[in-house]
Design brief:
The chain has 2 domains: about 60 residues, no CATH class; about 140 residues, SPOUT methyltransferase, trefoil knot domain (Alpha/beta knot). It is about 30% helix and about 15% strand. With about 230 residues, the protein is α/β, with parallel strands linked by helices. A 7-stranded parallel beta sheet has the order 3-2-1-6-4-7-5, with helices on both faces. The N terminus is likely disordered.
Amino acid sequence: MSGPAADREVATADPAAGPTEWGDGLVGVGPWELERPGEPRPTGDRWDPDLLDSGDRRNVVDRYRYWRREAIVADLDTRRHPFHVAIENFGHDANIGTVVRTANAFLAAEVHIVGRRRWNRRGAMVTDRYQHLRHHEDVAALMDWAESEGVPVVAVDNLPGAEPLETARLPRECVLLFGQEGPGVSADARRRAAKTVSIAQFGSTRSINAGVAAGIAMHAWVREHAANGRGDSY
């Protein structure tokens, strides 16, 4: 079943969040009274009165319709995956927004931005509001943090001696590190990373977009550690 009636049924049932939500192309819902005529208006800390009044057209799954932002983040925090994503930003990389958006989709623990603090948030499509972000001044600071947390860093770059991602075993708890567009992972990052993995390519280009590479690597982690179809890591 699809359409507004199905949306009401899903929202009313408040199902457990799954790995994918299929829709009919219409994003969001209108005011509560129009969507659910005759149903009592919900109360409680998780509900946003303004969204209940005016509708909710945010880029969130239906489970979170009418929820406050803080309530959504708190719920995501109960089931985040134990992998982190880091991207070097020494050249003001335009791919960071895409990386953040993808990290939110795969429910990464945190996104670490190494280098410049400022980045173009347009590509994140406001998903940065729901994704934990951490800044590090340089690679050394990121590596020191990872070592203090006992989390190995896996660099993703097509370099001599790199292990093919297609056959590599990724640690369940890890940091997937990506270099900026063009130069790739910095020499310091390669030197201190626990391992480096590469993504197989078969065409004429020397490299693929950093945002695309991040999505491929995150999905490889999901296939290995969250392949039960519910988004729950083993």
